[in-house]
Amino acid sequence: MIQVSNVSKSFDGVPVLKDISARFEQGKTNLIIGQSGSGKTVLLKCIVGMLECDSGSILYDDLDLTRMNFSQRRVLRQKIGMLFQGSALFDSLSVEENIIFPLNMFSTMNKEEKRERANFCLKRVDLQNVNHMFPSELSGGMKKRVAIARAIANKPSFLFCDEPNSGLDPITAIVIDNLIKEITKEFNITTIINTHDMNSVMEIGENVAFIYKGQLWWEGSNQDILHSGNAYLDQFVYSSKLMHKLKK
Amino acid sequence: MNFLFHTGRYFLLLVQILKRPENPSIYRKQIIVEMDYLGLQSLGIVSIISVFMGAVLTIQTAFNTEHPLLPIYAIGFATRQAIILEFAPTIVSLILAGKVGSRIASEIGTMRVTEQIDALEIMGVNAAGYLILPKTIAMVIINPVLIVISMFLGILGGYLVSLITHVMPVGHYLYGILFDFSPFDIFYALIKTVVFAVIIATVSGYYGFYTRGGALEVGQASTKAVVMSSIYIILFNLILTQLLLA
């Protein structure tokens, strides 16, 4: 579980996050949604500790990230897996080496065990016979799968996904969404997904937090989102013609 | 103000780089890889430049020191001293600042703008240490080897030009390069080389590590890395020469 309490963040005096509090449950796919510039990426970066929030607390189970020093954060981060918008695979390493990388750094596994783990993770994301390929040889969807495989290699307790569907076609996007959901359930991890894709919201949004202009305006599930009664959220949800027609 | 900001951040980065590695065996492997990328792959350019510079130095010295009071072997002596004291450690380091420095800055800068450094940090890896420390150690080990090779090839270039063009008698050249040899000169050159290696790796690493933006900024970081490494090499060359030879 991750509990964010009264988090604020500003850049050069311009407030980007205003007193945000939210709870992200273990074993659920938690989504942070909002339009571009709403502050969701800043919030995600604050949660993972890539940005320091100006005030507030961020609890990982019982541990407050904002009070941790560099070494304590390094230990916590070994329990974190993250899927980046651009996949962020290491260009100079093969697919297998990418997945084994966190294991090389932090596990006591031998070479064979690491290879087995890499193969297990690749199989889990439905990729086979790509072990020796390099990121530049993979399609966008395959890169995302490898990035997920790398994120789960070290058996994380927390999984963060920043715009996991960006640049993917709708079918592949749904496959990636469902993969993230399945992994969340299977390993009972706390997953937070940053997205503005309504397909993802409807597909896997068990716990959705809507951010508008740096403030948390609404929290609920994808079952409730179509009837939230929140004007800003409705504007976001029904912004596409498709959703607009569906509403009618 | 900007200078103070960069200096402070550079030293904070150095502290970060020197933190205990997560898995030293990974760093050791990385050092070997970097010795190849940053050192051995520069051997070609260093060799070509050294031979030709040695040859040109000999010709220049020969044409500019024609004087009845100056012994001919002084040309060989001057060539050797110029190569060992300045050309090999300083000029070759400046060339390496261009070749290796731009490579380091653009490699790390690209990793920054494609979120690969963020990925390392999120995993709990000390990204600064993992990316810059092996490069620094590799250069500290391999650059002195390159410089010694450069010294040898530079002097060989002078020998070859004497042999081929008869700009001076070969026997005098050989006598000159052995005349009044002080091993301390080599020691002095190697100390400078080690300092320059640290400058190239860390300054270039610094500019790469703090790159923000995209392809344009990576290019700018690479250029800045070369320019600033070169300036610091020249500055420290003066300081070390004053400290060690004065």
Topology pattern of chain A, helix = H, strand = E: EEEHEEHEHHHEHEHEEHH
Number of separate domains of chain B: 1
**Helix percentage range of chain B:** over 70%
Largest sheet of chain B: none
Q: Biggest chain pair contact, residues each?
A: A-B, 24 and 16 residues
What is the number of helical segments of chain A per DSSP (H or I, 4+ residues)? 9
The low-confidence runs of chain A, each spanning 5 or more residues with pLDDT under 50, are none
Amino-to-carboxy terminus distance of chain A: 38 Å
Instruction: Report mean pLDDT of chain A, rounded to a whole number.
Output: 90
3D architecture notes:
- The complex is a heterodimer of chains A (248) and B (246).
- Chain A has 248 residues and is an alpha/beta fold.
- Chain A has helices at 40-48, 70-77, 95-106, 111-124, 140-153, 170-187, 198-204, 231-237, 241-247, and strands at 2-11, 14-24, 29-33, 55-60, 63-64, 80-83, 158-162, 190-195, 207-212, 215-220.
- In chain A, α3 (95-106) packs across α4, α3 runs parallel beside α5 (140-153) and α6 (170-187) runs parallel beside α7 (198-204).
- Chain B is an all-alpha fold and 246 residues long.
- Chain B has one domain (24-245).
- Chain B is 85% helix and 0% strand.
- Chain B has helices spanning 2-17, 24-39, 43-64, 73-113, 116-123, 127-165, 170-178, 183-209, 215-245.
- The two termini of chain B are 33 Å apart.
- Chains A and B meet through α2 and α3 of A and α5 of B.
Summarize the topology.
The complex is a heterodimer of chains A (248) and B (246).
Chain A: E1 2-11, E2 14-24, E3 29-33, H1 40-48, E4 55-60, E5 63-64, H2 70-77, E6 80-83, H3 95-106, H4 111-124, H5 140-153, E7 158-162, H6 170-187, E8 190-195, H7 198-204, E9 207-212, E10 215-220, H8 231-237, H9 241-247
Parallel strand pairs in A: 3-8, 3-9, 6-7, 7-8
Antiparallel strand pairs in A: 1-2, 1-4, 4-5, 9-10
Chain B: H1 2-17, H2 24-39, H3 43-64, H4 73-113, H5 116-123, H6 127-165, H7 170-178, H8 183-209, H9 215-245
Helix pairs in contact in B: 1-6, 2-6, 3-4, 3-6, 4-6, 4-7, 4-8, 4-9, 6-7, 6-8, 8-9
